[in-house]
Specification:
Order of helices and strands: HHHHEHEHEHEEHHEHHHEEHHEE
Strand content: 5-15%
Shape: globular
Number of strands: 10
Oligomer: single chain
Mean pLDDT: 87
Distance between the termini: 57 Å
Radius of gyration: 25 Å
Length: about 400
């Protein structure tokens, strides 16, 4: 019996043994290669926060400040257009209205200029395909004249303002309810001013990705015509990268994760069989590679796998939504009307901000909503208009 066990142990521990191969692969991958390669990846479990978070946060702030200055110079050099061409008096109905909600923040970052300059540049680049797109600024600063960046942008884009300078302050109005009311105002004014088919409501620190208009073109004209998407209450174009992992209480993510393992398990087994000269598939090895690939994808970060979908608009994913957050929200005209009616009947407060309020409607009103993956905007605003923080971090 002991002799038989020793023989079995000897077979397992020979260098040619699959057990030794796979054990070595696991140790080298998770103990050496992945930590070395991924220690600077912000959204990976291998990220060395203690080493990198402070310098990376400072570098991001410095770069973002430079981008703010570049956006300021962009508009200072830009020729002022004929205002009649950008007004809301045109008789045709826009396919897409991009409404930028903005409030006065720190002047040195020029968040709204970054967002507006990027949309302006991408629309120019898009050309004839985006002829039915328009941009509207919605200034919700309590005293609109205080917002310096909007004064510059008013020469290039039509604008609406929520002027409350003559109003007595409401003591019951907390900052979360004010933000919701501002959102309702901007969405309502977007529908009244342009009557668009779709409204993309963007916060003033959500910079669009380069491919936003080709992807939206594909989604609006092809994907959103499907019955289960046509009546959605809204589509989110951004979800925080730190919340995009597979280990998450969302059934669709778990199914996606299992599907990844089921696909890569046999593929990696075939590669292993070819490299070692072993014939065919071995189910224990298939299961090993399935678990290996699932663990590696989760630890490196699902966010980085999602980036591969940017190769083509057809690869973008549209999946059921989660509650956080609202930097970029797409509404059809009918769904915008429904959302307005719902939001006017809700009161926001600490712990029940507008993103959670919108998400709560899915359950209470029997609505559906979806998120587009990967993100179509970058959230650059480390200085929040709601939560004061003198030393912001990327995480």
């Amino acid at each position: 019996m002991l002799h038989h066990a020793w023989q079995l142990y000897g077979r397992w521990c020979r260098w040619s043994s699959p057990f030794v191969h796979l054990l070595t692969l696991t140790v080298v991958t998770f103990g050496v290669l992945a930590p070395l390669i991924c220690h600077r990846l912000l959204h990976s479990y291998f990220y060395l926060r203690r080493w990198h978070l402070n310098p990376m946060s400072q570098e991001f702030l410095k770069q973002n400040q430079q981008e703010g200055q570049a956006a300021l110079h962009y508009f200072e050099k830009l020729q002022i257009p004929n205002i009649s061409k950008t007004s809301g008096s045109e008789t045709f109905r826009p396919l897409l209205l991009v409404t930028i909600i903005t409030v006065q923040r720190r002047n040195d970052f020029h968040y709204v200029l970054q967002v507006a300059s990027r949309f302006h540049h991408l629309l120019q680049q898009c050309g004839a395909r985006c002829q039915r797109h328009r941009v509207l600024l919605c200034n919700v600063e309590s005293d609109p004249s205080r917002h310096q960046d909007v004064r510059l942008l008013s020469s290039f884009f039509p604008m609406v303002s929520r002027d409350r300078t003559g109003e007595d302050p409401d003591p019951a109005l907390n900052q979360f309810e004010k933000e919701k009311q501002d959102y309702v105002f901007c969405l309502e004014q977007s529908l009244l001013a342009y009557n668009p088919e779709y409204v993309l409501v963007v916060e003033d620190d959500a910079v669009p990705e380069d491919e936003i208009f080709p992807v939206l073109q594909h989604l609006l004209l092809a994907r959103f015509s499907k019955p289960y998407l046509r009546d959605a209450l809204y589509f989110k174009l951004y979800h925080p990268e730190r919340l995009q992992h597979y280990v998450n209480p969302e059934p669709m993510r778990i199914l996606e994760w299992l599907g990844l393992g089921m696909f890569l398990g046999p593929v990696l087994n075939c590669g292993y069989s070819w490299a070692t000269g072993r014939p065919g598939l071995s189910w224990p090895i298939v299961w090993f590679f399935a678990l290996y690939s699932m663990a590696l994808s989760e630890l490196v970060g699902r966010h980085y796998l999602l980036e591969l979908r940017r190769l083509a608009p057809t690869l973008y994913n549209v999946v059921p939504v989660t509650e956080c957050c609202t930097p970029a929200m797409l509404f059809s005209a009918p769904s915008a009307q429904r959302a307005l009616g719902y939001l006017k009947g809700l009161h926001c407060r600490q712990g029940f901000a507008k993103d959670i309020a919108l998400y709560s409607l899915l359950r209470t009103k029997g609505e559906n909503a979806y998120v587009v993956e990967p993100n179509l905007v970058r959230h650059v605003g480390m200085y929040s208009s709601l939560r004061l923080n003198d030393n912001p971090k990327l995480l």
